[in-house]
Specification:
heterodimer, A: alpha+beta, D-Maltodextrin-Binding Protein, domain 2, 2 domains, four-stranded antiparallel sheet, four-stranded mixed sheet, 20 helices, 15 strands, disordered N terminus, B: mainly alpha, MetI-like fold, flat
């Protein structure tokens, strides 16, 4: 059964529907765009029900309680997708009030596009210069204006199967000779010296040039290269890449070159936990999940600083990484409220320490911690790592990670071309020469983030 | 019906002129088309025009875009990575034009010969096609794992030839291995297409062929293939276009690695847009790929106009 309608009725009804849709869209757009409404939107990259529940219970609710009338809308986004989602939203003049980027080099692109608001006023109001680590704040400055707050400090560590090492009477290596002896001994016994692989994330190959440049070439040489004083084609960088290539050819990383390309994270972490691999070079984020891989075997684990691979390179050196930064959307409806949430999230030492204890490595605040700042419930190894990183970097004993200090195009070059070095398609020399060309181009475009000077330089 | 009744009672004096009636019908038709047209303009035409525009700019994906003329296209023609990726697309296309089509034809032919369990086999062949590519990829990543997969299982029973082979980590094996996984998911669909076509071939032609003394192979070549030619050509066209646009399995399993050994234009384009933030260049790359697809479709249209039954 159907009723016939006249053309006039059809047109009138169609017109009303179209008008209704248009008006509804306008009203909704208006609600989203303008503000001072007391609503703050934030996209978090926390994964898993545990960290997300902790955030809702211990951060989101208490913040709303402390700021009556403020509605904090938190959306959890997949970490791997976060930057793409943010870019898409910002292209449409949308996006959250507080914007997370994968690091200072990425934040710079948004700043160039005038999408971020200056934070200096809020920095003065909340005294961030007194609270946060100085170098961390410096990383968020562009042309002397503060735009981004580092949110997740990272460094590279040498994890090892402590039970295996004790059984074999071994200690974590303190220099290149010890590292090579360790690798030969483990390999001789059928144990993979370094659990490694990029099957799940080919971009993770950048960890290794990062480690070899910092611990072979050294932070001073890197500082000079990143500031344009010497080229990346300098032999000191080429030799570092050749050393890594040599280790991979020996089968020290992941068992073989082909397995290095195909090993997934779960498999290589399981190898470390089972004692099929002795060590693993990975970022401090692995502290969050490492225990899971030792549960079945019952083995113990620990970490050690990566050893210097050449004389003259500092012994306890931590390459600095910023996993993410927080900035204020230039279109934020409630900018004041959003800035107060950044302060609440990052700058309170007690709250941050509790969070870092409850959810290891999901969030590492750029604050001057000592071991005593952390609650007793925190795993001693995690507390030791956080305090060591904080203290060493505060003394200027730090290096540079590719994903933080290299411009994004140079970083992508490293991720893609380093694979070709391992397969023999290009030489270490060609790789470094190509990097230097890309980096020089990036420098001309002003894409290099602020390079902080190490204490030794 | 309502219109004709109204016309017959109103009489010729009140009948609307033929031109006006035609215009009214046309207007009504267009009004019904408007929602669909609006959606098409919004999700196809708009982005397509925007893509063409951005291909002439240096747009990074955010912020303003500066017009650079034909620079992206000049760069594309000289981009070694693009041509390597395009070559991988060609290899992929050749693999998909042979292996799954041959398997599909054989599977469909064998299925058409049986009555019992035919539904079971049809479902069994088709299941991988409807399973999400992420699931299929994860399944085969585990099955082909050098330490925990088929290779090591075979080695444990004394068949060591696949032991330790890293299918997705080897430059030589990565592309064919990913193609194999995709073929496994794809060929069941081809079987169903060919089976449906086979069932429409007149059985009397087979009887006539048999009476003329034709064997199975001759029946297949002289009766089956001509009978399913439209479906065959459709599958070929679909295969070529899908092979040019391939993205998901490569992205999930190898992301184009190792060292670009399995890179196809789809994954390279994604990297340009979302890793290197060269959205303008990625748009030019996408249009280059569309151009190749368009040429292939035009060839088919041309052949059809020349009288080919395609």
């Amino acid at each position: 059964m159907h009723a016939e309608i006249s053309r006039r009725q059809f047109l009138a009804t169609g017109g009303r529907v179209a008008l209704g849709v248009g008006l509804a869209g306008s009203v909704l757009a208006g609600c989203g765009g303008e503000g001072g409404s007391g609503q703050i939107t934030y996209w978090s990259n926390l994964e898993g029900s545990g960290p997300q529940d902790y955030f809702k219970k211990n951060i989101e609710k208490p913040f709303e309680k402390a700021n009556k009338g403020t509605d904090l809308k938190v959306t959890f986004q997949p970490p791997d997708e976060m930057d793409r989602l943010v870019r898409t939203a910002l292209q449409g003049s949308e996006g959250p009030d507080i914007i997370m980027t994968p690091g200072p080099a990425y934040a710079q692109e948004y700043i160039d596009a005038n999408l971020f608001a200056e934070l200096d006023e809020y920095s003065n109001e909340y005294k961030w210069e007194d609270k946060l680590l100085g170098w961390a704040l410096d990383l968020g400055r562009y042309e002397d204006k503060l735009y981004a707050i580092p949110y997740q400090l990272q460094t590279m560590l040498l994890y090892y199967n402590k039970t295996l090492f004790e059984d074999k009477g071994m200690l974590p290596p303190k220099d290149r000779d010890e590292l090579e002896s360790m690798a030969e001994e483990l390999q001789g016994q059928g144990i993979t010296p370094f659990a490694a692989g990029i099957g799940d994330d080919p971009a993770a190959i950048e960890w290794f040039p990062t480690v070899f440049w910092n611990h072979y070439s050294g932070p001073d040489a890197l500082y000079q290269a990143l500031t344009g004083e010497i080229p990346f084609s300098d032999p000191i960088f080429v030799d570092a890449i050749e050393l890594f290539h040599n280790y991979v050819q020996k089968g020290w990383f992941g068992g073989s070159q082909e397995r290095f390309f195909s090993n997934g994270f779960d498999a290589l972490h399981a190898d470390l936990g089972d004692g099929k691999a002795g060590t693993n070079i990975e970022g401090s984020w692995f502290l969050a999940t490492i225990e899971d891989f030792f549960t079945d075997s019952g083995d113990a684990w620990d970490w050690a600083p990566l050893p210097p691979l050449r004389s003259g390179v500092p012994a306890e050196l931590y390459e600095l990484g910023i996993g993410s930064t927080l900035s204020l959307n230039a279109r934020a409806g409630d900018a004041e409220g959003a800035a107060s949430f950044i302060d609440y999230l990052v700058a309170d030492k007690k709250r941050a320490a509790e969070w870092m204890a409850a959810v290891p490595s999901a969030f590492n605040a750029p604050l001057p911690f000592t071991e005593s700042d952390f609650p007793a419930s925190m795993d001693e190894r995690v507390a030791r790592q956080l305090a060591a990183l904080s203290q060493a970097t505060n003394k200027g004993n730090f290096g540079y990670t590719a994903w933080t200090f290299w411009p994004s195009k140079s970083d992508v070059y490293i991720q893609e071309e380093m694979q070709k070095v391992l397969t023999g398609d290009i030489t270490a020399n060609e790789f470094c020469k190509g990097l230097d060309e890309q980096f020089t181009e990036d420098r001309k475009e002003g894409a290099v983030p602020k390079i902080i000077k190490p204490g030794s330089a | 019906m309502a219109q004709s009744t109204a016309d017959s009672t109103a009489g010729p004096a009140k009948r609307a002129p033929a031109g006006a009636l035609k215009r009214r019908r046309l207007l009504t038709a267009w009004l019904f088309m408007i929602p669909l047209l609006a959606i098409n303009v919004l999700v196809i035409l708009g982005p397509s025009v925007a893509t063409i525009y951005y291909s002439f700019t240096d747009w990074s994906g955010i912020g303003p875009a500066e017009f650079v003329g034909l620079e992206n296209y000049r760069e594309l023609l000289a981009d070694g990575d693009f041509w390597i990726a395009m070559w991988h697309n060609v290899i992929w296309t050749l693999l998909f034009l042979t292996v799954p089509i041959a398997m599909g034809l054989l599977g469909a032919f064998l299925l058409s010969q049986i009555q019992r369990f035919q539904i079971f086999f049809r479902i069994a062949y088709f299941i991988p096609y409807v399973v999400a590519s992420v699931v299929n990829a994860a399944l085969w990543q585990n099955l082909l794992d050098p330490d925990r997969g088929i290779g090591s299982a075979l080695a444990s029973i004394g068949i060591p030839f696949l032991d330790g082979v890293s299918f997705f980590g080897s430059e030589r094996l990565a592309l064919p291995s990913v193609a194999f996984v995709n073929i496994w998911a794809w060929w069941g669909f081809i079987v169903l297409l060919f089976l449906t076509a086979l069932q429409s071939v007149d059985h009397e032609l087979y009887e006539a062929a048999r009476m003329d003394g034709a064997g199975r192979w001759q029946q297949f070549v002289n009766v089956t293939l001509p009978g399913i030619r439209p479906t065959f050509v459709f599958v070929v066209l679909l295969t070529i276009i899908n092979s040019l646009l391939v993205f998901d399995y490569v992205y999930i399993i190898t992301r184009g690695g190792p060292a670009g050994a399995s890179e196809v234009v789809g994954t390279l384009m994604w990297k340009q847009a979302f890793e290197r933030f060269e959205a303008g260049y990625a748009a030019a790359m996408g249009l280059g790929l569309s151009f190749v697809s368009g040429v292939i479709v035009l060839i088919f249209v041309f052949l059809r106009r020349r009288g080919w039954e395609v």
